[in-house]
Design a protein that fits this description.
This protein has about 400 residues and is of the alpha/beta class. It has 13 helices and 14 strands. The longest helix is centred in the last third of the chain and has 24 residues.
């Protein structure tokens, strides 16, 4: 890339060590104006320090945006309508936040007339792919600067030395080594990777976990929770109507108290390597369990089976950064269409890390017919004799194959 042609760049900026170094590096190496963008997606950190740091280095255009409601409404909710789970366990907490950030990076680039965007994702991870695929989908000719793929500051010590040379304020914990892993947080989850967790045999210490109680130390009494659904989305918690972001925050609070949502996983990154990560997703764990329960009485068997067949592919699309791809949008249309009947309520029992569905009800869309399902006299609603022919027809191919095998043995 011709560095001389870059006049203005929008940087996804957290105010931490990495992006603070990147800010100064962009100014020095590209000799360009830097616009900073900080997204509040529920990471639980004060954002004012990011503004102060950006001002220290002469940044004139500083964007700090509260995206919590948009994040849950337009990204988390559609994903949970699909019951998306990557590799059988991961609820995609980091993956689903990246297209939202990419979307706003591009919007700010257009608004400020920037030539390029920049991010702090490393050249080994998934996030570089997610940010850039999202940006290219929305702004095809955007230029992307990924410092981790260009510079030689490839260790914490080198970053700290650069920060000292350029008088970049560094958090004391970062200077002393801080936590023995890197963290990423948003309203859906917290992830922990790297450092001591790079040994898959290492059991993380209890103090690592931030938002969930240890199941062993969780309350000894179960708590009941009722969720109300409209078209596949949660609209009420214990009868109270909440906005999407406030709903998820409340489920995080309740689930975290009961030790729900911890996960220790070795996953396959899109770039080809395996990676060990630990995750806390209390609200999302509750949402997945409840949504499947709601679908169980309101969705046709084959529609539900089709959704389950498509889910792993849909989850991979999100994990790999294809949120804005035509295939994800096509799948979303199908998924959203299936949710028109997913209306009603689910009651759950939360206890020491477990979520147990205890009831589900839909006054308008339930396909559960007690008159047919009963083990008592159904008054002729279902003729049990019909099952004989049904079984024989379905067994026909098995009987043909069995007869052929029998002839071969003679």
């Amino acid at each position: 890339m011709n560095k001389d042609r870059i006049k203005k760049v929008v940087l996804a900026y957290s105010g931490g060590l990495d992006t603070s170094v990147i800010l100064k590096w962009l100014q020095d190496v590209y000799e360009c104006e830097v616009v900073t963008f900080t997204a509040d997606i529920g990471q639980g950190e004060e954002l004012a320090p990011a503004r102060r740091k950006a001002k220290m280095f002469g940044v004139k255009s500083i964007f700090i945006e509260d995206l919590r409601e948009e994040f849950v409404r337009d990204f988390v909710f559609p994903m949970f309508r699909a019951n998306a789970v990557y590799e059988g366990e991961y609820l995609l907490g980091t993956s689903i936040a990246r297209p939202l950030i990419a979307k706003h990076l591009v919007e700010i680039a257009r608004k400020t007339g920037a030539d390029a965007i920049s991010h702090g994702a490393t050249g080994k991870g998934n996030d570089q792919v997610r940010f850039e695929l999202g940006a290219y989908a929305l702004m095809p000719n955007v230029r992307v600067i990924a410092p981790w793929r260009e510079w030689d500051l490839l260790s914490r010590d080198k970053l700290l030395k650069y920060a000292d040379q350029h008088k970049i304020p560094v958090d004391f914990k970062k200077r002393k080594g801080g936590a023995p892993y890197s963290m990423d947080a948003n309203l859906l989850h917290i992830s922990y990777e790297g450092g001591v967790l790079e040994d898959p045999a290492f059991e993380p210490e209890e103090s690592m976990w931030r938002i969930t109680a240890s199941p062993q130390k969780a309350p000894n009494r179960a708590e009941m929770l009722e969720l109300g659904y409209e078209k596949g989305d949660i609209v009420t918690v214990n009868g109270k109507r909440l906005t999407p972001a406030k709903m998820l925050a409340e489920l995080n609070r309740i689930g975290g108290k009961h030790g729900i949502g911890r996960l220790d996983l070795v996953e396959n990154r899109y770039v080809g390597m395996k990676s060990r990560g630990c995750y806390e997703t209390p609200g999302g764990t509750i949402m997945l369990k409840a949504h499947r329960a709601m679908e169980s009485i309101t969705m046709d068997r084959e529609v539900l089976a089709l959704k389950d067949d498509l889910m792993p592919r849909y989850a991979r699309l999100i994990y790999n950064g294809y949120w804005f791809s035509p295939e994800r949008m096509l799948l979303q249309t199908l998924i959203d269409g299936s949710q028109k009947t997913v209306n009603g309520s689910v009651r759950l029992k939360l206890y020491k890390g477990t979520v147990l569905v205890v009831s589900r009800e839909s006054k308008t869309n339930s396909l559960f017919d007690p008159a047919i399902s009963t083990f008592d006299d159904d008054g002729g609603a279902y003729n049990q004799a019909d099952a004989g022919g049904f079984i024989k027809l379905n067994a026909l191919r098995l009987r043909i194959a069995g007869n052929l095998a029998k002839k071969r043995r003679r």
